[in-house]
Amino acid sequence: MRPATSAARLGRNVHRWRLQHCMTKAEFCNYAIVSRPFLDAMESGRSNITLDYLVYIARSLGMEPWELIR
User: Fold this and answer.
1) Residues 32, 61: contact at Cβ < 8 Å?
2) What pLDDT, in 10s, does the model give residues 25-55?
3) pTM here?
4) Which residues make Cβ contacts (< 8 Å) with residue 6, sequence separation at least 6?
5) Any residues with CB less than 8 A from the CB of 34 and at least 6 apart, and which?
């Protein structure tokens, strides 16, 4: 079994946060001010975001960046 990549962990944690807050993808995009294609790529583990964008996403969710990739 391969260990999960950081992108996969990020996607899983964003997806989990969105579901815990009962948000649709559209609602999340409006809340975090991200595009739908970007959210789709992020939740599927296909995104390769910058550190600055990781910090932005984390802060918009009320989290620390490390919490999204642990």
Assistant:
1) yes
2) 999 999 999 999 999 999 999 988 999 999 9
3) 0.89
4) 69
5) 28, 42, 57
- Measured CA angle at 11 (ends 15, 41), to 5 deg: 105
Give yes or no for a contact between 51 and 40, defined as CB atoms under 8 angstroms apart.
Answer: no
For residues 15 and 69, is the Cβ–Cβ distance under 8 A? no
Please answer whether residues 43 and 11 qualify as being in contact, where contact means their C-beta atoms are separated by less than 8 angstroms. yes
Contacts (Cβ under 8 Å, ≥6 apart) of 10? 42, 45, 47, 49, 54, 68, 69
Do residues 39 and 25 lie in contact, with contact meaning Cβ atoms separated by under 8 Å?
Answer: yes
